[in-house]
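Re: that chain you flagged

S.,

Sorry for the slow reply, it's been a week of failed gels. I finally had a moment to sit down with the sequence you sent. For the record, here it is as I used it:
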Amino acid sequence: MTSSELWTRETAERYDAGETEMSSAAVLGPTLDFLAELAGDGRALEFAIGTGRVGVPLRERGVPVVGVELSEHMAAVLRRKVDEDALPVVVGDMATTVVPGGFGLVYLVYNTITNLLTQDEQVECFRNAARHLEPGGRFVVELGVPPLRFLPPGQVAVPFDVSERHLGFDTFDLVEQVLVSHHLTRDGEDGRYRRDASRHRYAWPAELDLMARIAGLALERRVADWDGTPFTQDSTKHVSVWRKPA
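Prediction finished late last night. Pasting the structure tokens below so you have them in one place:
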């Protein structure tokens, strides 16, 4: 077990309903195009595959996908969509779990590397990706850029969503490099909100590049989004590709 917080059955059951926008064709289309091109004719391994938001449609594109998932409850939701023979999932953590065989692509989307709450574990995640990659294979990470420019002196919270049914904000511990993501979600029409919170260790692109170097990987490409938008100093996230030497 790593430091990652474990998703409960209740959270897993409502996860897909809360991520309808992230599961839309507008979001998934560029993501799948990007990953399928990198996978080519090889196999893909998704760390923290969750309920299969990306892995299931990527498999439908013809890419053989295997998943690693820490939460048995999240994996159980995925299993309702596709059987084990079509998309195998190993229950375990993404820093140490080993899946048989080699892969042309290992990927980790939607800020999930931040679920590992220590730098050591994030380094081990890169090493684990490199362990699974065939020569010339790629490791892809999608991750937000920490919004610390929004923190004036004395402020520790940054809002990221203020909408009719959801209030979201992050609070930052700048010493420990940990943020807590807070969510207030209105479930019904009675005006009541459900409160959730999760901890994450944020990391800068340059820090990830050093983790990759420790794992024997080299940066091949960094863009601001799956559609290939150039990464700049104003980008709020990045999609980075590191390559294992051939």
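What I noticed first: The chain has a mean pLDDT of 92.

Talk soon,
D.
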